């Protein structure tokens, strides 16, 4: 395809990859979309208008060179397209799968605003990177210079930690990653279901990092297996990239009843079962929705992961209660549509107020109908009581109300580690360093629960500031000598 074949959005309609039928996909954890064939990827890339000011790139947290790799794809230059995508992102195939493109790049596509339908950016990003893996274009991590006299410790192996680990290893530093779980990837591995992100995709990224000499120490609890002071003595710089895992609680009568579980506990159990692990909480029915009337409370992407997981586990019925309406929902619109296709019922403008129990196990959710008031600081209209009471029968209730930071100063035995009033770690905005010299922080533990793509961005940024810190340390020691 020649370069003159771009700007075809007036002649070629938007066409996303075909989804497997809901009846086919609702009992497995495989990804729901079939991959593009080459001709289709080239065709859809050719719709790009090659804007002088590409709003897709502006609204991407990584500022990916989207128009450039769309053009290269349209011209059949896939390896170059991959190299362009990988120049700004350490995980393009993961972002292509799980980024909410409808709120970021595609939602700001110029031809979308003109009524022609956005370029299918995420699907093309996934396509070119998957092809890169299949064709051997994803090369081993190259070490630019041997700086192994300096050592970096990274706490947390989610997207922020893994991104920083890769970029610092490229610089030549010794890198050790510590994680509390028995596998790397953080929420990429244990929080996101396979129908959105199959686990081999994360696994091959981890393997590439291991082959580059990055050391992973799993089932490692900072504060128990080693103190923060011990880690600081062992490494020249530390990065805290733990994410936020503490479930937000709902204060209501009956909230401690059996059969009411936290979203992340539920998703971790499901993902572990998919790995073939021994999961007592799943086997005894605590985290298994089979044959149950399931109610999920919440409206974010985690809630969507829960309702769609419950469908695949064989739930009798699945309902999602959310206190706002569809237009004011924080989750991805495409995920809501996928859930509806799979049989999930959304009960909008509802807020739970109590839980009924029968013989110690939840039997129903009681609550109040809501109405929307004036917009809040985030621009979404605020819910307020506005109607009659309601009651939903339930055998399993999953609380997906979001996440807050854990008390890291207490967990790590480091009370001098500064935090904000929200419990996130306080950092210098320029250096990303915490109140402890040589200890940096990035990702959700700094910004609060956010998107994977923002964690990758933070990991990229903190790798630069940590490199500057270590270079300055080298320079100071040379002067002292």
TrEMBL record:
Residues 378-389 have a biased composition (Basic and acidic residues). Residues 152-459 form the FAD/NAD(P)-binding domain. Residues 368-389 are annotated as: Disordered. Keywords: 4Fe-4S, Iron, Iron-sulfur, Metal-binding, Oxidoreductase. Residues 27-136 form the Dihydroprymidine dehydrogenase domain. It comes from Pacificimonas pallii. This is NAD(P)-dependent oxidoreductase. Pfam families: Fer4_20 (PF14691), Pyr_redox_2 (PF07992).
């Amino acid at each position: 395809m020649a370069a003159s074949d771009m700007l075809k959005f007036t002649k070629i309609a938007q066409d996303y990859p075909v989804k497997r039928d809901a009846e086919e996909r609702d009992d497995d954890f495989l990804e729901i979309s079939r991959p593009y064939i080459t001709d289709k990827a080239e065709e859809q890339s050719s719709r790009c208008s090659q804007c002088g000011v590409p709003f897709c790139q502006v609204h991407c947290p990584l500022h990916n060179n989207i128009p450039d790799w769309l053009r290269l794809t349209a011209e059949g230059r896939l390896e170059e397209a991959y190299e362009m995508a990988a120049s700004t992102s350490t995980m393009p195939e993961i972002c292509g799968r799980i980024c909410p493109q409808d709120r970021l790049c595609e939602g700001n596509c110029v031809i979308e605003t003109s009524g022609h339908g956005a370029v299918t950016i995420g699907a093309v990003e996934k396509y070119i990177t998957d092809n890169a893996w299949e064709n051997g274009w994803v090369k081993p991590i190259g070490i630019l210079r041997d700086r192994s006299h300096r050592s970096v410790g990274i706490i947390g192996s989610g997207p922020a930690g893994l991104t920083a680990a890769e970029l610092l290893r490229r610089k030549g530093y010794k890198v050790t990653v510590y994680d509390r779980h028995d596998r790397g990837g953080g929420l990429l591995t244990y929080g996101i279901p396979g129908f959105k992100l199959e686990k081999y995709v994360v696994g091959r990224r981890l393997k590439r990092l291991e082959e580059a000499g990055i050391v992973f120490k799993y089932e490692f609890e900072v504060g128990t297996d080693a103190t923060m002071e011990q880690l600081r003595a062992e490494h020249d710089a530390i990065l805290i990239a733990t994410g936020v895992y503490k479930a937000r609680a709902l204060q209501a009568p009956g909230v401690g009843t059996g059969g009411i579980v936290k979203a992340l506990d539920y998703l971790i159990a499901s993902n572990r079962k998919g790995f073939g692990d021994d999961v007592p909480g799943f086997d005894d029915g605590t985290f298994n929705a089979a044959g149950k009337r399931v109610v999920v409370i919440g409206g974010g992407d985690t809630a969507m992961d829960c309702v769609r997981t419950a469908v695949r586990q064989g739930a009798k019925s699945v309902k999602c209660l959310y206190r706002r309406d569809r237009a004011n929902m924080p989750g991805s619109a495409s995920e809501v549509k996928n859930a509806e296709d799979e049989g999930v019922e959304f009960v909008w403008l509802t807020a739970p107020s109590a839980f009924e129990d029968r013989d110690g196990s939840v039997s129903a959710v009681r609550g109040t109908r809501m109405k929307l008031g004036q917009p809040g600081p985030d621009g979404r209209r605020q819910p307020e009581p506005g109607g009659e009471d309601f009651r939903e029968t339930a055998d399993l209730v999953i609380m997906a109300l979001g996440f807050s930071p854990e008390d890291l100063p207490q967990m790590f035995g480091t009370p001098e580690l500064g935090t904000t009033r929200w419990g996130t770690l306080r950092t210098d905005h320029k250096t990303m360093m915490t109140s402890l010299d040589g200890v940096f922080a990035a990702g959700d533990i700094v910004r609060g629960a956010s998107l994977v793509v923002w964690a990758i961005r933070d990991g990229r940024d903190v790798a630069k500031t940590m490199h500057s810190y270590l270079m300055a340390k080298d320079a100071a020691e040379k002067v002292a000598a």
